[in-house]
Amino acid sequence: MTIQPPYPFPNMQEQVAFDRREMQEILTLYGRMVAAGEWRDYGISCLREMAVFSVFRRTAENPLYRIEKHPRLRGRQGMYSVVGMDGRILKRGHDLRTVLRVLERKLIRAVE
Fold this sequence. Notes:
The chain is α+β, with helices and mostly antiparallel strands and about 110 residues long.
């Protein structure tokens, strides 16, 4: 027996989302940045064309970085990208771990 939803949405398209492996990569980096005191909050948006993981220093601010997944760009520049606060694409590629390395460099600091 199948249960029909009370309000069917025939025109509703599927949303793009991060899978479990992708979320593990992102949250591993997020945890290290929180421990370093750089990041404090995050938000996830699953839209029709892309999925976005936004990173905030404070909750009420604009995001410091956005980690985006665009499946339509899979065959071109790569479906993963890191976008800065000013809207510039810092890194784009086919492998999420490689793209996230641009943010890992922020953890390396000179010790005086």
